[in-house]
Sequence to fold (174 residues):
Amino acid sequence: MDLLQDSRHTMWGLNARLKGFLEQVNRLQQANQRLEAQIADWSARSTSRSRDWSQQENTVQELRVQVGNLLMENAQLALQSDSMKSRAADIQARCETEERNTRRLERQVVLLRESKAKADRSSVTLQADLRHSMSNLQEMHQEFEAARALQLQRAGSCDVLLATARAAAVARGE
Fold:
């Protein structure tokens, strides 16, 4: 939005300068017409002198044409200058916008790198916890298997004792 407002402001400034310049050209043309009228009036009054002013009038006319051409050239140069200033302002605004975006992205990269480092540290910790848990699970499994084997062994000896006790009871006649 800033760029659009800057462009509008620049265009408004250019239009104001052009208007001022055109007003100056009009004032100069009016002054020139007054001078031409005075010269024509003076030459009409002084025709009685019968002096030949045609060469001077030709010179004056050529000078007027040159002045008009120079005024137009000056106006074109002023417009070109304003156009270049406007382009420079646009480029400056774009450059500033890009610099702000670059700084914002650089901050995001730093934050992402910090997040990645934190995630890496967390991963290492979780992997160590997993290895420790796996080791504990294996130990528990071994203890379970040992307890089960002991229980099966005891169950087998209980069966032998029961069988012996039954055999003794049968032998006694019970």
Observations:
- The helical segments are 2-45, 54-172.
- The two ends are 109 Å apart (CA to CA).
- Residues 2-41+57-127 form one domain.
- The chain has a mean pLDDT of 89.
